[in-house]
Amino acid sequence: MRLLDGKNVFITGASKGIGWALAQAFAENGANIFAHSRSEDSQWQEALECLAKKNGVTIWPCYFDMTDYAAMKKALNSIKANNSSVDILINNAGVMTNALFQMTTDEMLRQQFEVNFFSIFMLTQYISRLMTKKNSGSIINISSVVAIEGSAGQSAYSAAKAAVIAFSKSIAAELGEKNIRVNCIAPGIIDTTLLHSLPVQRLEKTKNKTLLKRYGLPAEVASTAVFLASELAAYITGQVIRVDGGLK
Predict the structure, then answer these.
(1) Which of 97, 101, 117, 224 fits 155 for a cystine, CB–CB 3.0-4.6 Å?
(2) How many domains is the chain partitioned into structurally?
(3) Domain limits at 110?
(4) Is residue 47 part of a domain?
(5) Beta bridge partners of 17
(6) Pairing mode of beta strands 137-142, 32-37
């Protein structure tokens, strides 16, 4: 059973890691996709074409830097001009900088908030207006378990991702009357290239703190997003779903 036949989803950071797993999972469930990446990539575009053909959906690649609000608005205006709708928004794009609190520079702090929070705020503002016209929609923001638990050496990243959670709960309260649901997914240690930028000893220590004693897979985050976007989750909003293997 395809859970999202005919729906249109906008996925940021869809070219690798969790974002690529999201694109695959949503295509497999019948959704048409606005697949965002920061820069053009012919190999990724070919992969999107194969994914679309395999699943009988339409995929439109779109390119802009998440901190370039003029380019962001231009991309969204093209969606409006084509009378296309966005039923689901997944704010996945992000960056992670690791540094001890006392070694975190002003530039590093600002980058974490610009990419991981401010850009999400602006994109959601634009797309929620499209959803409001249809009086329906689902917004899924990808946060992190460190936003809840904290993490040594990730104070800026943790703070920016915590802002995403607070933002999600607040706009869930605002948009609920428009039948727009807003939820967060807080992944734990997911096996991506971003994860492996951390020291091996630290990763092993964190993995052993999970009840399942393993890394999570990008597909496991993606399947949670499919559920939250579907009618199976029609009465779920304002929630933070941890996909962390029972991290303690």
Answers:
(1) 101
(2) 1
(3) 8-243
(4) yes
(5) none
(6) unpaired
Of 5, 10, 3, 94, the C-alpha closest to 59 is 10
- What are the start-end ranges of the E strands in the chain? 8-11, 32-37, 59-63, 88-91, 137-142, 180-187, 240-243
Q: Identify the CATH number of the domain in which residue 141 sits.
A: 3.40.50.720
Residues with a known catalytic role: 157
Q: Does 234 have pLDDT greater than 80?
A: yes
| Segment 32-43 mean pLDDT | 95
Distance CA 92, CA 143 (A): 8
Other CB atoms within 10 Å distance of the CB of residue 189: 21
Please report whether residue 1 resides in a domain. no
Top pLDDT among 102 and 20 is at 20
Pairing status of strand 88-91 against strand 8-11: parallel
pTM: 0.95
Q: Is 241 in a helix, a strand, or coil?
A: strand
Q: Residue 9: left if φ>0, alpha if ψ -120 to 50, beta else—which one?
A: beta
59-63 and 8-11 beta bridge pairing: unpaired
**CB under 8 Å to 77, separation ≥6 — which residues?**
none
Q: Is residue 28 part of a domain?
A: yes
Residue 202 pLDDT exceeds 90 = no
Alpha carbon distance 127, 143 (integer Å): 19
CB neighbourhood size of 213 (10 A): 10
DSSP string, 113-170: HIIIIIHHHHHHHHHHHHHHHHT-EEEEEE--THHHH--TTBHHHHHHHHHHHHHHHH
d(CA 240, CA 173): 14
